[in-house]
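Q: Convert this sequence to C-alpha cells.
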Amino acid sequence: MRERTKKRPFKERYKPSAPKYILLWIAGFMWFGVGIFLNTYVYAWLSSDFRIFNIAIILFGVLLSLGIHYFGFSKIAQKNLIRISMMSNHPCIFSFMKWQNYFLVIFMIGLGFTLRLSPMPKTYLSIIYTGIGVGLVLSSFRYFKAAIKEM
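A:
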C-alpha cells in the first residue's frame, strides 16, 4: 500500500521562493534601477537648457549623494544584508526588503511625484534627485557584492 505523504500547507506550496542570492540580485537591481531612473530626470531637466551652472548643480548633487550613501543608504543596505543572510535557504522573493518598507516605498514615490509637480525649479530639484539617485546606485553595489559571494 502506498504511503501518503503529508501535504505542505497552501501558503508554502505557492510561495514564490528563491535562493538568497536571487533576493540579493533583486534588491541590487531595484536600488540600481531606481537610482538610474532618478538620474534620467536630472539629465532631461539639465540637458534641455545647458549652462555652466548645471555643472555646479551636478557636482553638488554628487557630493550630497556621497553623504546620503555613507550616512543613510549603506546602513539600510547593511541591515537588509544581515536580515537576508539570517533567512532560510529559499525565502519568499518579496522578502528582499521588510514588508514595512513597502509603505515607505509608496510614500517615497508619492513624494517624488509631488516634488516633480511642485513649482520648485527643476534645476534645484536636480540636486536632490542626483543625491538620492547616485546614493542608491552606490549602495546597490553592496547587494551585488553579497550576491556574488552567496552564489
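Helices lie at 10-13, 20-47, 52-85, 99-117, 122-150.
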